[in-house]
Amino acid sequence: MAYVISDDCIECGACEAECPVGAISQGDGKFVIDADACIECGACAGTCPVGAPQEG
Predict the structure, then answer these.
(1) What is the C-alpha R_g of the chain?
(2) How far apart are CA 44 and CA 53, in angstroms?
């Protein structure tokens, strides 16, 4: 199942830069992950300072 970004997101952009398939973009108040593009690699979760990306 694709990763999702929780409301804990602080909009730092670290996850967007780390995503190898470009599935992450700026949303309204937090970053969002395109579930269709997500390859479930976990790179975003590994780089997030607040642990916002989680397996959906």
Answers:
(1) 9
(2) 6
